[in-house]
Recover the amino acids of this structure.
């Protein structure tokens, strides 16, 4: 029997990138999945990937909408219950670095950027957790939040509110894990480093070509990604699946698993290596 047979999962932000790969992996391993995002066309691509992987149509629920809207959050819960009868797994994956309208970085970024960034990356997670809680308590379920190594401890001047939001999310993961433990709901999170997805086109405004070149460059620079390559969304989906699988990770709660190919282990000084001695 596949590990997610008879499980029902809501995966936010599944019209692209990590969420899309997670939906395909979960469904391929037996889960019924609710997929969601604002972009109806890209959501259709996810649905086609699922159907191409021989997932039956009645294992797929599609909700188009903005996850920051309460009506969309409610539709996710309601339609999942109507179609599948329960909720076992909530993956709070939707997220992005919201570009500042005037291109500002650091402490000068606008308050509207701050509010939009927190609405998406923090508040929607809080709201989905509240709404899913009674159903997860009933099923003894799991929550996996998607954070980022941007949460720290390294400073993030280019996209400060995004990184502060992910740091807040990490503390929420710990707090929710303890709060919900008596209801037998497990809460954990994954902190990816660079992953080749649509993230850079949204958050950094790069076109597809530049985005691809950036991920390839990062992967080829050992002081950026010591592992020697930039992750694909499937690499992160596997970690999410581990945390969503009670058999595999039952004793882990409130933890953030870093999956960054070693990026966060490198200090600036390491980049100079032995050459530093020659330079002085
Ligand atoms: P993508 O841009 O490829 O995917 C983001 C997903 O989130 C899309 O499905 C998008 O759907 C959805 N989304 C964004 N805003 C909203 C919204 N307001 N309402 C509903 N859905 C929304 O990026 P990733 O797959 O890389 O991002 C997934 C998660 O991984 C995010 O939380 C991100 O912060 C995190 N992450 C990514 C890293 C990377 O390098 N890629 C590194 C560290 C963390 P749509 O546009 O259709 O609304």
């Amino acid at each position: 029997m596949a590990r997610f047979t008879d499980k029902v999962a809501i995966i936010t932000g599944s019209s692209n990138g990590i969420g899309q790969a997670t939906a395909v992996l979960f469904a391929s391993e037996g889960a019924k999945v609710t997929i969601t995002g604002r972009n109806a066309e890209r959501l259709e691509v996810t649905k086609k990937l699922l159907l191409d992987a021989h997932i039956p149509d009645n294992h797929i629920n599609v909700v188009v909408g903005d996850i920051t809207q309460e009506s969309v959050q409610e539709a996710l819960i309601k339609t999942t219950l109507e179609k599948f009868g329960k909720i076992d797994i909530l993956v709070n994956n939707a997220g992005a670095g919201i570009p500042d309208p005037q291109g500002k970085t650091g402490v000068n970024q606008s308050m509207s950027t701050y509010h939009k960034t927190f609405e998406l990356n923090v508040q929607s997670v809080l709201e989905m957790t509240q709404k899913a809680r009674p159903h997860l308590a009933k099923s003894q379920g799991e929550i996996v939040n998607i954070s980022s190594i941007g949460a720290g401890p390294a400073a993030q001047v280019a996209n400060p509110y995004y990184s502060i939001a992910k740091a807040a999310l990490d503390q929420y993961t710990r707090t929710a894990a303890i709060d919900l433990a008596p209801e037998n709901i497990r809460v954990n999170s994954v902190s990816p480093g660079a992953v080749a997805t649509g993230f850079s086109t949204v958050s950094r405004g790069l076109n597809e070509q530049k985005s691809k070149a950036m991920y390839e460059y990062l992967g080829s620079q050992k002081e950026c990604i010591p592992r020697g390559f930039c992750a694909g969304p499937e690499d992160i989906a596997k970690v999410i699946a581990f945390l969503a699988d009670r058999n595999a990770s039952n004793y882990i709660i409130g933890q953030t698993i870093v999956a960054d190919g070693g990026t966060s282990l490198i200090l600036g000084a390491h980049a100079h290596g032995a050459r530093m001695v020659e330079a002085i």
